[in-house]
Amino acid sequence: MTTVTGPKDLRSQPDSNSFLSVQDLHVQFATEDGTVRAVDGLSFDLARGTTLGIVGESGSGKSVTSLAILGLHHRKTTKITGDIHLAGQQLVDAPRSILQKLRGNSMAMIFQDPLTALSPYHTVGHQIAQTYRQHTGANKAQARARAIEMLARVGIPQPAARVDDYPHQFSGGMRQRVMIAMALVCDPALLIADEPTTALDVTVQAQILDLLQELQQQTGTAIILITHDLGVVSNIAHEVLVMYAGRAVERGHVREVLTAPQHPYTWGLLSSMPRLTTPVDVPLRPVGGVPPSLIDTPTGCAFHPRCVYTSAVPSTDSCSSVRPVIAEHTSRGAACHLTAEQRQDFFAHTIKPRLG
Ligand code: SF4
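A: This is the predicted complex of the input protein with iron/sulfur cluster.
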């Protein structure tokens, strides 16, 4: 079970039930134009064996959050504050040696494009085996056997024969499987998958998502799935965190968020998604306006310049002056000043009919 809280300073203790606890996380980059607030007070918890889908447009802070968890930001140019606890270990400001040990052993990442993440100069077997040896001290023969075992586990046919092939000898879907094998070779307790199926066709995409679910059932791995695709989230995630301008704007169980979304930004994401029931002559409705500057984030609710509700219904000044937060210690909620009744009414009468 996961919970989300607002951007207050909650740096006391992580939730004792959570495996990963992110509390009041801020990630800032210094640029010539000013400070980029890429993540701006984000808090969430994740339990073992569950999947959290983090969704939002490009620049909403999804990937920056995952790189902060993995400790992959450049320390000289990035300022990170807040708490990230993984199995009780504080990761913010942890020594490099600790983070290096945890990456691979306790946490791993799969990327959108395996071609850029895998080395073209080494066989896939060598790359998987090296990762295994680095973290376990296994000898060459043991690591090779483990690489073959992992290729079999992710569904590569004839793994003993393919272990000596190079990445370019695999199809896109098979390369993604190889990357999953490499990420899981040390049985990490946390897997972060950043747009893992974006570059794949829908059939292969479904296979990869099935594979992730299957592996999670076998190992109890906690998964963070980063995506802009609510369809992918609906297939695999237990909980969803919607991000906008580096902040959490909605949180809840996947079915609740997708069938009864509470935040106007989530309404926009759902309205811009193609559906089987939508007639071909009905245009999709992208979220109006443009994503905000993260150097000069709008005051109050960062979504207010694009909000479909405030442009349709005269609203209070608080939208542009007071930052809304998700109520603390709740597993379901939205960072919005509207009352639950106002949101339900507008969604039922204005948004839902457009969704088909
Ligand atoms: Fe829209 Fe106001 Fe809610 Fe922000 S707080 S999403 S501007 S209604």
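The longest strand covers residues 34-46. Residues 1-14 have pLDDT under 50 and may be disordered.
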